[in-house]
Amino acid sequence: MGRDILISEVGPRDGLQSIKSIMPLPAKKAWISALAASGLREIEVGSFVPAQVLPQLADTAEVVAHALTIPNLTVAVLVPNLRGAEDAIRSGVHKLTIPFSASETHSLKNVRRSHAQMFDEVRRIAERLRWQPAASRPKLEGGLSTAFGCTYEGDVPIDSGAVQLFRDDAFVGLGELPMVLPGADVRIPFGQDQRIRIVVRDESEESGNVGVVNRDQLNERRRRFEITSFHASALPIEVIDRVPVARDEDIRIEVLKGATPPASKDFNGHAGVYLWRLAGEPRKTETIRHYYSVKFPRNKALAQVEGG
After folding, report:
1. Do residues 117 and 218 share a domain?
2. Quick one: 164 and 36 in the same domain?
3. Which of 80, 121, 129, 278 lies in disulfide reach of 237, CB 3.0 to 4.6 Å?
4. Is the residue at 26 inside a domain?
């Protein structure tokens, strides 16, 4: 199934505010009309900021009035604060975009507000729009600046906080994201996925080899994992389990015939931790056979000690 892609042209605002010369109003109108004629459905035509700050955009109200005469065009403007939002609402625009910098240094230099102050500003604008009649209420949108790096701070860390995971439109769980740099790999536990079924069968009990510790010199442990995904599309699955690690040279741990080879042993540097990777095809049961044996002298007893 195809998806629509909306291209929002920001040249009449972002392009013009970056140059010293001021484009005449008739030229702006002609430019916006040409952009709309090319097939663009949304154009950010200006910004409601004080004229002494950006004289290049001092005529934004007049530009908006012209853009609103163009059929089937969504007219958007940038507003850095509540005052700008009030002016934009009076002009009749269809969309307000609030700039929010991922970098706090950029935020202070760009809109002269900290992150906390910008959150307050966004709340005030959202509250103002709630009181606006639906017929004249513009859409509110946030624009995230310096998301991939900042000229002042360099790499901008991703702030920590709660993260909700949805898969196939179903809520999977709630996790906690630590503060990380862009590009870093992060593993977040989200709890149990209700669309993945895991059945664990203890085959050692079925064959009569019960328990890990008994009077024999050989103990075998055979466990079978059956994993089925009920998601609509393939979902890679990782399964982690462990085998005992002997601290005595007389005790030998061996993988038994028929065991499923793991993708990684001593995973992440943890002795005895195995990792298996599954394709997770929809409604296909995949099996992992985790078989191992422990051999030890009759005159020794085994004790289980938890370790990292």
Report:
1. no
2. no
3. 278
4. yes
The answer to the question of residue 22 being in a domain is yes
Print burial letters for 260-299: b (CB count within 10 Å at least 16), e (below 16).
bebeeeebeeeebbbbbebebeeeeebebbbbbbbebeee
- Residue type for position 173: G
pLDDT tens track of the chain, all 308 residues?
567 888 999 999 999 998 989 999 999 999 999 999 999 999 999 999 999 999 999 999 999 999 999 999 999 999 999 999 999 999 999 999 999 998 889 999 989 999 899 999 999 999 999 999 999 999 999 998 988 888 898 888 777 777 777 665 666 667 777 777 767 777 776 666 778 888 888 887 444 344 444 444 677 889 999 999 988 888 889 888 888 888 778 888 889 999 999 999 988 888 889 999 999 999 999 999 999 988 877 776 666 655 54
Flag whether 308 is in a domain: no
Based on the domain organization, do 88 and 16 belong to the same domain? yes
217 Cβ neighbours under 8 A, 6+ residues apart: 295, 296, 297, 298
Note whether residue 301 is domain-resident. no
Query: Domain range holding 122?
Result: 8-145
Number of structural domains in the chain = 3
Q: Is 191 left (phi over 0), alpha (psi -120 to 50) or beta?
A: left
Taking the whole predicted model, whether its pTM rises above 0.85 is answered as: no
Q: Does residue 141 share a domain with residue 186?
A: no
Would you say the C-alpha torsion 18, 19, 22, 28 has a positive or negative sign?
Answer: negative
Quick one: tokens of 265?
Answer: 């042993």
